[in-house]
């Protein structure tokens, strides 16, 4: 389970805080040093950890102790609130046009991040909301990716548009939108090609799609297991092509979880969903407050 080690460590810090009737400034500082270590070990970005700790410290020292809480409980409450803030406070939805208009969503991400699986998961969510999604196979380099999208689309009961491997992704996107308009589909979801690493061709291809069709939402899929790399990837995609939100996959694995805690603060973009398994139903809305509770135990 993600965050297991972080959770254990924070609970230990809190246990020693809870027992204290009074907290000196030194007590708070010692506790926060341990919180800092725990966050760094969970692979949260260094800059994010530093800002987080100073925000908590500022509030915790010279705090207005509420009558109902011990000083220790107050520190725990502040850590909780700051964690929620770090993850963006609010739940963010994929922004859709009114049902009468067409929404175009572009999915991006490195190969293996879980993009194709997540694309089909999203289609299922949108279908459940009464939308009519069309999945579009824009990964023209891997025939297996087209096949995988078709199989997943079938499982979800969602149509898949493909033109094989011999067309440019931007042209496929354009044709898919025309097809969707004709066939009464109102959300077009483009599954684009990933690469093992960020490279210029991949970025240019995404830029070309964006220059050819009007993309309303660009969603980046990153793998939680890759830790800070996921955060760096998100930063680079955001700089190069502009993203509207991030989906973090494989949070069901035993990842240390740092990506989920850092991405919002580093990129300024919200986490929309988290992938919690390989099944097409394993996609959860991202609730910063619930995630913080999960971490704090
Ligand atoms: P793509 O190359 O980015 O399109 O990646 P795929 O969609 O093919 O996914 C790569 C692998 O990750 C597949 O084996 C998926 O089943 C798996 N996967 C995707 N999302 C999740 C998730 O949230 N949890 C787990 N455990 N596996 C996932």
Explain what this protein looks like in three dimensions:
- There is one protein chain.
- Helices cover 51% and strands 13% of the residues.
- It is α/β, with parallel strands linked by helices.
- An 8-stranded mixed beta sheet has the order 3-2-4-1-5-6-7-8, sandwiched between helices.
- Helix 6 links the parallel strand 2 and strand 3.
- Helix 2 (25-41) packs antiparallel against helix 3 (46-60), helix 5 packs parallel to helix 6 and helix 7 (169-182) packs parallel to helix 8.
- The longest helix is centred in the N-terminal third of the chain and has 17 residues, at 25-41.
- The two termini are 13 Å apart.
- The mean pLDDT is 93.
- The site of guanosine-5'-diphosphate has 18 residues, from helix 5.
- This is Signal recognition particle protein.
- Residues 270-283 form the SRP54-type proteins GTP-binding domain.
- It is found in: Cytoplasm.
- It comes from Lacrimispora saccharolytica (strain ATCC 35040 / DSM 2544 / NRCC 2533 / WM1) (Clostridium saccharolyticum).
Count of DSSP helices? Answer: 11
- Structural class of the helix and strand makeup? alpha/beta
Average predicted local confidence, pLDDT: 93
Number of strands: 8
How are the strands of the largest sheet arranged? 3-2-4-1-5-6-7-8
Bound molecules: guanosine-5'-diphosphate
- By oligomeric state, this entry counts as single chain
Termini separation comes to 13 Å
Using the alpha-carbon principal axes, give the shape.
elongated
Low-pLDDT parts are: none
Order of helices and strands: HHHHEHEHEHEHEHEHEEH
